[in-house]
């Protein structure tokens, strides 16, 4: 039995009209990503109201690292959490201040660490005792001082994709305590605090509240046991957005007062903790993006409708565990029709896994019609296996002040041949 | 050993979602891939059907999905454990 696409999951902050989307698809071709700058702005403001006052919000660049989007977020006052040399260079290239950058990730290369150290970024978030040794040695070569926070793994993951629990991320609290108690032996390092990231795609407000409380409790314990003052605490984030028919937009406001008082109490008891931070990528950029793809073929096979699109999993992210069996917010935007049926929307790849919607109730299209996939701004373009089948990567467009502008040209097949 | 209740729930879901299982006998030691011929997409289809029917979520990071979706019996045991007590 088919499922209706959950159009209620389309963000109210996404306001680009259909006729503009159609024009963009015609002008620049499909498949294509379009981002609504106004929506980014609204999501940014919303999240800043949800986190405790006086907290700092880092944009997780991995969600969408397009340079023009980074510039836009910088103008709104954003700081950046990067997780690779590429992301670090991206934010440095837009003139982000070193004090606006933190560098996380379980596998940092010496080259990336050297750029971070030379640039004097706000802090490198170390994920193991071995990495701390490496940072110390690298910093000593240039006789540099480097600020380091320790990523703690509390084994309390809770999210669609768990980052806590028994994973490769961070270090156990006991290791952090040993390192901090021995901080004087790391001559080049200024230990400034702790970091954690327990989960992503969280849709339960209480989970954010509980993980923040756990983190602050652990920070207090680590500070006491190690005898080291912690100035910077990054509690991570994980604010999710609804995608599938089974998801619901959470009432984030319900936890705001308790989150506020939790952080206030901590600050009152730890006046030296000058900075409490949170991170988000998906919540800020996810609802602002739409993916447009055009119908290449329509056929009925053994009683089922199959629609072949010019963009599939090769350009729409490769990490959807449901493989189209849960319906996404999808609309046909090219024309009105009352002829609905259960459709399976497939990409152009030669694999049966290339399905973006299975048995979903949608308007039956003709060749050339355009579908819009909403909530597509985060972890879609950059999480795509775009070299698979050599179709290339799509154009990205930013819609700002009623005008659309290409912010990344398509990476064409010709570019693959060079 | 899975309970009769969870085996019946699972059998109904299997027969409803996969036409080739409509009238085939389904045994507790049947392997989902080899014996019931569920390919990788069918497995995802089954996962979603179970999630919707039982109000649970499978977490591919925290759970050993491959072992859970091994045999009819292993999956029914999972339903016994979590089916009436959603993990979140």
Give a written overview of the molecule.
Chain A has 418 residues and is an alpha/beta fold. Chain A has helices at 18-28, 37-50, 67-75, 85-93, 110-119, 129-141, 173-181, 205-226, 256-269, 282-285, 413-416, and strands at 32-36, 56-60, 79-82, 101-103, 123-126, 146-151, 161-162, 189-195, 199-200, 232-237, 275-280, 289-301, 304-309, 330-332, 340-346, 355-363, 370-373, 395-400, 403-408. The longest helix of chain A has 22 residues, at 205-226. Chain A is elongated. Mean pLDDT of chain A is 94; it is low at 157-162. Chain B is an all-alpha fold. Helix content of chain B is 50%, strand content 0%. Chain B has four helices and no strands. The mean pLDDT of chain B is 88. The chains are: A alpha/beta (418), B mainly alpha (88). The interface between A and B is medium-sized, with 18 and 13 residues.
List the main descriptive attributes of the protein structure presented here:
heterodimer, A: 418 residues, alpha/beta, eight-stranded parallel beta barrel, 19 strands, 28% helix, elongated, B: 88 residues, mainly alpha, 50% helix
| Oligomeric description of these chains | heterodimer
Class inferred from helices and paired strands of chain A:
alpha/beta
Structural class of chain B: mainly alpha
- Strand element count of chain A: 19
- In N-to-C order, the SSE pattern of chain B is HHHH
- Total number of β-strand segments of chain B? 0
Order of helices and strands of chain A: HEHEHEHEHEHEEHEEHEHEHEEEEEEEEH
Main interface pair? A-B, 18 and 13 residues
Task: Supply the number of helical segments of chain B.
Answer: 4
Radius of gyration of chain A: 23 Å
How would a textbook summarize the main sheet of chain A? 9 strands, mixed
Biggest sheet overview of chain B: none
- Secondary structure: helix percent of chain A: 25-40%
């Amino acid at each position: 039995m088919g499922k209706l696409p959950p159009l209620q999951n389309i963000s109210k902050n996404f306001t680009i009209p259909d006729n503009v989307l159609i024009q963009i698809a015609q002008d620049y071709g499909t498949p294509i990503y379009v981002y609504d700058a106004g929506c980014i702005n609204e999501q940014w403001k919303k999240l800043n109201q949800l986190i405790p006052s006086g907290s700092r919000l880092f944009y997780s660049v991995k969600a969408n690292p397009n340079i023009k989007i980074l510039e836009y977020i910088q103008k709104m006052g954003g700081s950046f959490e990067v997780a690779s040399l590429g992301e670090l260079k991206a934010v440095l290239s837009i003139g982000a201040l070193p004090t606006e950058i933190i560098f996380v990730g379980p596998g940092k290369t010496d080259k990336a660490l050297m750029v971070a150290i030379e640039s004097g970024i706000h802090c490198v978030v170390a994920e193991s005792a071995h990495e701390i040794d490496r940072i110390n040695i690298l910093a000593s070569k240039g006789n540099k001082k480097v600020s380091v926070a320790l990523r703690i793994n509390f084994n309390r993951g809770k999210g669609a994709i768990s980052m806590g629990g028994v994973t490769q991320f961070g270090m156990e609290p006991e290791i952090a305590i040993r390192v901090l108690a021995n901080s004087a032996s790391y001559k080049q390092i200024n230990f400034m605090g702790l970091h954690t990231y327990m989960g992503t795609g969280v849709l339960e407000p209480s989970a954010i509240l509980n993980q923040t409380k756990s983190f602050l409790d652990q920070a207090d314990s680590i500070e006491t046991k190690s005898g080291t003052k912690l100035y910077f605490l990054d509690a991570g984030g994980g604010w999710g957005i609804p995608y599938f028919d089974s998801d619901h937009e959470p009432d984030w406001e319900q936890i705001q007062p308790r989150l506020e008082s939790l952080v206030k109490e901590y600050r009152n008891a730890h006046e030296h903790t000058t900075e409490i931070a949170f991170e988000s990528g998906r919540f800020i950029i996810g609802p602002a993006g739409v993916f447009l793809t055009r119908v290449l073929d329509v056929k009925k096979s053994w009683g089922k409708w199959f629609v072949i699109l010019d963009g599939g999993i090769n350009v729409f992210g490769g990490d959807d565990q449901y493989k189209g069996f849960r319906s996404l917010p999808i609309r046909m935007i090219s024309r009105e029709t009352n002829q609905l049926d259960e459709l399976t929307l497939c990409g152009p790849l030669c694999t049966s896994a290339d399905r973006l919607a299975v048995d979903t109730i949608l308007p039956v299209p003709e060749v050339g019609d355009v579908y819009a996939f909403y909530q597509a701004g985060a972890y879609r373009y950059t999480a795509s296996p775009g070299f698979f089948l050599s179709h290339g990567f799509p154009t990205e467009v930013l819609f700002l002040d009623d005008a659309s502008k290409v912010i990344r040209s398509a990476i064409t097949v010709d570019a693959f041949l060079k | 050993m899975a309970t009769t209740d969870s085996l019946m729930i699972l059998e109904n879901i299997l027969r409803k979602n996969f036409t080739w299982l409509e009238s085939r006998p389904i045994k507790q030691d049947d392997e989902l891939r080899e014996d019931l011929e569920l390919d990788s997409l069918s497995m995802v289809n089954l996962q979603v059907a179970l999630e919707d029917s039982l109000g649970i979520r499978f977490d591919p990071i925290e759970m050993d999905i491959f072992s859970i979706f091994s045999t009819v019996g292993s999956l029914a045991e999972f339903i016994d454990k979590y089916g009436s007590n959603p993990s979140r």
